[in-house]
Design brief:
The chain is an alpha/beta fold. Helix content is 41%, strand content 23%. A nine-stranded mixed beta sheet has the order 6-5-1-9-10-11-12-13-14, sandwiched between helices.
Length: 333
């Protein structure tokens, strides 16, 4: 069966605002560095007000972890679809326009009143990113926003572990994974964030146990999810949970299991200025690769290269010229 889409992504639909801050700014504002924290809209406004007092620049993009990966895959040439809930407000319309400009199809559910979710991404001089997220309309993502016809016509479903932060979304995600598996669609999931894993491990397991073909995670997430202190043991436990997995370690590369063999992909050493979006870029490039017929080794090497380019710029993704350069370098259509 020839399917229309290479990838169908489901996740939070957030309008990201990214800006540079100092460690002192985070300390004064009482923000825990290096993690994603859910906050309310007032808290976001207070942080932005503090930020606005100085001469700062910022970047706004449609975002959310899976959204970033889907946009990356589309930029490389994949046919993609994304489902996420935005409100009928200016931010929601901006989100939809940006997706369309990136070549990503979006579900046709009528927009509802409310507030589109937003994520403040704060980047410090050491390139570490810290996120404060107000889910807004994304907190009410439902089956109404899922296009089962498009999902049925996809090779892979990619879903984010952030959905495990609520019982309602966990149950919905499990149902969607079940539908995908019965439809012959392979399923990949990102464990998303160490904090999410530690706080919602049972919900994540409920999603994974339905049947997952590929788990993406970093070292901290792998250890938290498996409850181990050793990466070798964590990898062994992950092999029981999923057909395959990829454990990323930034510049140290990635450890991969393709269902039969374990191998390593060397990282690319660069001068990083912003790590936001690196993991999302890796996943998007990896999924582009395997849906294009490449093996895991090629996919991991390519994804590491793509991620290394993202961290050298301010912002979570590459631009059109970067994608064209990558295509030329790797002989991609």
């Amino acid at each position: 069966m020839v399917r229309k889409y290479h990838l169908y992504g489901i996740g939070a639909a957030l309008l990201d605002t990214e800006f540079r801050v100092s460690d002192q700014f985070l300390k004064i504002a009482g923000i825990e560095k290096g993690v994603m924290t859910l906050v309310d809209e007032k808290r976001q406004r207070d942080i932005l007000s503090s930020f606005a007092k100085g001469p700062n620049d910022f970047l706004r993009k449609c975002g959310g972890s899976v959204c970033n990966s889907i946009v990356a895959a589309a930029g490389l040439g994949s046919e993609t679809f994304f489902s996420g809930k935005v409100a009928d407000d200016a931010d929601g319309h901006t989100f939809i326009r940006e997706l369309a400009a990136a070549g990503v199809d979006f579900h046709n559910a009528q927009l509802e009143t409310g507030v589109t979710g937003k994520c403040l991404v704060m980047v410090t001089v050491d390139a570490e990113r810290t996120m404060n997220t107000f889910l807004g309309a994304s907190a009410h993502l439902s089956k109404r926003e899922i296009d089962e016809t498009a999902l049925f016509n996809s090779q892979w479903l990619y879903i984010e572990g952030y959905l495990a932060t609520s019982a309602e979304h966990t149950e919905m995600a499990a149902g969607i994974i079940r539908f995908a598996k019965t439809s012959g669609v392979k399923v990949a999931i990102s464990l998303s964030d160490p904090f999410v894993v530690e706080a919602n491990s049972e919900n994540l397991r409920q999603m994974v146990e339905v049947g997952v073909d590929l788990i993406f995670c970093n070292k901290a997430e792998a250890l938290a999810f498996t409850g181990t202190s050793n990466l070798d043991e964590a990898a062994r436990q992950l092999s029981y949970c999923s057909i395959s997995h990829v454990i990323t370690s930034g510049a140290d590369g990635a450890r991969c299991f393709d269902g039969e063999s374990v191998f390593f992909s060397e990282g690319v050493t660069v001068d990083a200025i912003d790590t936001n979006g690196a993991g999302d870029m890796f996943a998007g490039a990896f999924l582009f690769s395997i849906t294009s017929g490449r093996n895991f080794q090629w996919a991991a090497d390519f994804a590491n290269d793509c991620a290394s380019r993202v961290v050298q710029r301010f912002g979570p993704r590459l631009d059109r010229e970067d994608f064209e350069t990558l295509k030329d370098q790797y002989g991609l259509p």
